[in-house]
Write the structure tokens for this entry.
Amino acid sequence: MKSLFESRFGVIIACDVSSKENLMRLVEETSSVKGIVGYKVGCILGLTYGLPRISELVQEITDLPIIYDHQKAGTDIPQLGEGFAQACKDGGMKGVILFPQSGPVSEEAFIDALFTRDLIPIVGGEMTHPKYLSTDGGYIRGDAPKEMYHLAAQKGVEYYVVPGNKPDQIKKYRELLSPLLDLPKFCMPGIGSQGGQIRSAFQHLKDVSAYAIVGSAIYKSDDMKSAAQIFAREALEFV
């Protein structure tokens, strides 16, 4: 599989802003920062402006890859995978985040649809917030993320979303995936405003690849470039 990022460690900026003007300002101020490896856009920008327009705006400034997070894709019937993947391809995305909570048949269908279009699937299972898993009072069975990750590895997926504010879970999922893949790659939200720290998250991932996903701690900062530099420097300590 081709690599999504040039570096084994770095920071992905989550562009959860509300307007194209704020998006462009964020990218303009941070894209030259060493250690920033890509941008993640979500459904609010996607639904407001359309993925092709978002891609066009970002690509006017940088050639760093754009990841689409539909929040949460892969949760519908298998037949929708093809159309979803094509829309992401037409929209200029390079990677696409899936959270296959609707079961293994849909998970396989969405992964296959992305691979067919030369897109990189990034599979998540456990989220960052409280009361997500049934073991913590949530709706999702406690061992379901493990099954989602395991099936994705069998399908050849190399990139995974794990909760960056739960170091013990990061360690658990690395131990699950490392025997199955030559070099699993972990993308971690929950760092910054949700309490996670790069050093505590990355310490379990020194022998693989790790990327912090950081949003409001950067885009709500009065000095976005300086904020991005702080996070990026921490990530690059592990290079």
